[in-house]
Design a protein that fits this description.
With 176 residues, the protein is an alpha/beta fold. Helix content is 41%, strand content 18%.
């Protein structure tokens, strides 16, 4: 019997995570999904292999990553309010250490584009997390994406709501 390689998907209930999970399975991965809210996750997708925990807790990460050869890190704390930059660094540090401790071979991180000038606060946080994960003990690939807009994503909802309410929109100077 051929066993599929195991991958831990963080951010599995988010827009990107829920879209990438079926593609991972189609590509031959056995996907374990990490969630902070097991009830919500099981209600959304009861057929998936869920494990409850938080990437900021190293013991939880070790348990979730155990047996995985790879991990997809799609976590960002911006929606949790002030101090999210510290939470992102804290979580990425613990996740990286846990991944190394259990023998994960590769981490893939979804970061943000590098701007020409000084990045906005939320983008600086993504850059710092990418730097931290790439400098860590587990080889890490950072995919850099601009705003991901798709039906149902937070970005899509924001653009839709702005377009519906504002007949004219003044954009900041830094936006090309």
């Amino acid at each position: 019997m051929l066993t599929m390689p195991q991958l831990l998907l963080t951010g599995a209930t988010g827009f990107v995570g829920s879209a990438v999970q079926p593609a991972l399975v189609t590509s031959g991965w056995s996907v374990r999904c990490l969630t902070r809210n097991m009830v919500r996750a099981r209600n959304l997708r009861p057929e998936l292999d869920w494990i409850e925990g938080d990437v900021a807790d190293e013991a939880t990460c070790k348990r979730a990553l155990s047996g995985c050869s790879a991990a997809l890190y799609l976590v960002h704390s911006m929606s949790e309010g002030t101090g999210y930059e510290r939470r992102d660094i804290w979580a990425a540090t613990r996740f990286s250490r846990a991944a190394a401790a259990v023998g994960v071979k590769r981490v893939v991180f979804l970061g943000g584009m590098l701007p020409k000038g000084r990045p906005a606060r939320h983008l600086r946080s993504r850059i710092e997390v990418g730097n931290l994960l790439r400098a860590g003990p587990v080889p890490t690939i950072e995919l850099r994406a601009s705003m991901i807009v798709g039906y149902g994503s937070l970005s899509w909802l924001l653009v839709r709501d702005l377009a519906a309410r504002l007949p004219v929109m003044v954009l900041p100077r830094w936006l090309d």
